[in-house]
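Lab notebook, design round three. We kept the backbone fixed and only want residue identities now. Task for the bench partner: fill in a sequence for the structure below.
Input structure tokens:
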């Protein structure tokens, strides 16, 4: 048995790998690489391979298995990815392709579900409200997603997309979304959505981290953007 747990967060902007010691539950390796999804699906698989190889070199051995948190979900009927804001993933059998690319067993799950489950059992929910029976965890990054945990277990729904609220309409007749609708939650409060809103207010193009820093300095437009 591998003495480490290996996990990968496959995001729209970056791919991050963390390696945790089974005995101490401490992270011993944390590395990231750019996703570069604009270059296509095969390129993304290559980026993942580069990252795993890099971490394996640091760890001194290759993992037996890796768990992946991904945007969207793996369709339980057709076995392909769907509803991914990283659209290059949609329509592909990601789990099978990862197994082939890495040569090891790969397990994938929705990133927001992973987040909500982790916070329930190991994070802020356990520390602050351990008696909570229902947990709603929100991810706001390149896209917007959420996970729902009921009685300690993820709620998936019959199509595997329970909690995926990023494409509920928040602003009718709002910004066009890649899904074909207008004013989706994701177009409003994702990283790109907030950056766009700040630009509309200030005529300045800043990254979201820079907007947050401006808000800490009581910049009016930045405060309005994030509150």
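Proposed sequence:
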């Amino acid at each position: 048995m591998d003495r480490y747990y290996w996990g990968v967060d496959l995001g729209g902007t970056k791919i991050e790998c963390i390696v945790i010691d089974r005995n101490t539950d401490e992270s011993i390796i944390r590395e990231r690489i750019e996703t570069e999804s604009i270059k296509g699906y095969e390129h993304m698989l290559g980026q993942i391979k580069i990252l795993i190889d890099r971490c394996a070199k640091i760890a001194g051995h290759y993992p037996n298995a890796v768990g992946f948190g991904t945007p969207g979900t793996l369709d339980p009927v057709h076995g392909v990815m769907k509803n991914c804001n990283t659209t290059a993933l949609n329509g592909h059998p990601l789990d099978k392709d990862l197994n082939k690319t890495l040569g090891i067993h790969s397990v994938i799950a929705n990133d927001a579900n992973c987040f909500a489950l982790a916070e329930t059992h190991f994070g802020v929910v356990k520390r602050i409200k351990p008696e909570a029976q229902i947990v709603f965890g929100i991810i706001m990054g390149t896209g917007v997603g959420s996970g729902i945990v009921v009685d300690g277990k993820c709620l998936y729904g019959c199509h595997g997309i329970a909690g995926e609220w990023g494409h509920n309409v928040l602003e009718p007749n709002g910004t066009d979304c890649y899904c074909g609708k207008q004013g989706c939650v994701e177009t409003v409060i994702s990283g790109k959505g907030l950056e766009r809103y700040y630009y509309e207010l200030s005529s300045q193009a800043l990254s979201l981290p820079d907007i947050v820093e401006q808000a800490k300095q009581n910049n009016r437009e930045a405060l309005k953007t994030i509150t």
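Keep this in mind before ordering anything: The beta strands are 4-10, 14-21, 27-34, 65-70, 73-74, 81-82, 105-110, 134-140, 144-150, 153-154.
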